[in-house]
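Example record used in the benchmark description.
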Amino acid sequence: MYPWLKTDFWSNLISTDLAIDLGTASTLIHVKQLGQVVIYEPSIVAINTTSNEVEAVGDEAKQLMGRTPQGVKTVRPMRDGMIYEVDAAEKMLDAFIKKAKVKNGRLHLTTRICVSVPPRAHQVARRAVRQCCYDAKANEVFLADQTMVAAIGAGLAISEKRGCMIVDIGGGTTDIAVMSYHGKVFSDSILVAGDEMDEAVTKFIKDKYNVVISESAAEEVKMTLGSAYPLGKTLTMEISGRDAFEGLPKTLVLNDAEIREALSGPINEILNLVRRALAETPPQLSADLIDRGICLSGGGSLIKGLDERIRKETHLPVFRAENPRYSVVEGTAVLLNDIPLLRRIQILD
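Model output (structure tokens):
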């Protein structure tokens, strides 16, 4: 059959279908027509306070954090997985969508968007996400449950009549769900995730060394030295900050044991949520988890030894998704290729 006789051929030629993971820390956009993620940038926007116009977005805006001149402010419009500043979020999302369309390089007569939202997002928050997409010139907008699409993106068989469990640790929230046959048997979330870990590192260093470090430095320390379980070797790194007493630059040498101590609070809260999820899971599904295990996704799941720590605590198999940071956006993209399924499991106001 000639390709131009197929409906999808003309649809893909004149439309753009976008899967969006609008996260607290990062925004990822997958273009269906290209079959790949084209945007993976920090959820930050720099705005001119005089003209209210966007000066920079994503990576460029992050470089301005702490370095903005007068008349420009950097904003993180997402907090706890939801829109916190609607106007800034709209401007940021509009800029990202325009960049994605440019990379698509096709006609853009119609735009269809599917956005993942955390389970704890209330109706007002969901409407804000939907409206931001429409304001960014979308013709059709779908909302999908974040834990559901994370499981799909991680390759879990949520359509089977057997239990599977996902622990998605993002920037603002940790979301856990036990699923079976396209539905959730247990679902809950806490406001403890990557950002909370960064704050714990910052507080630990200030309390112990009286040195103040930047957000980006705290994130670098977390990803380089952070661990949830003792490592086989000692890791160290240098970090620079400002002496809280003297106000002068200061360089420290940190090790993994210190940062493991700093992260113990957030890690323990996540473990408590995992335990509660298992305690409230029906016995038959619990039996399924003995074989199928617990899947970790999200950037926060990359903390060294987290899988081993959960394995020791629960006595269940634990594994990370193949691409933890991309699980949500890739799962959302899968739904755009199966519109009947998307319409079935989408979140309606």
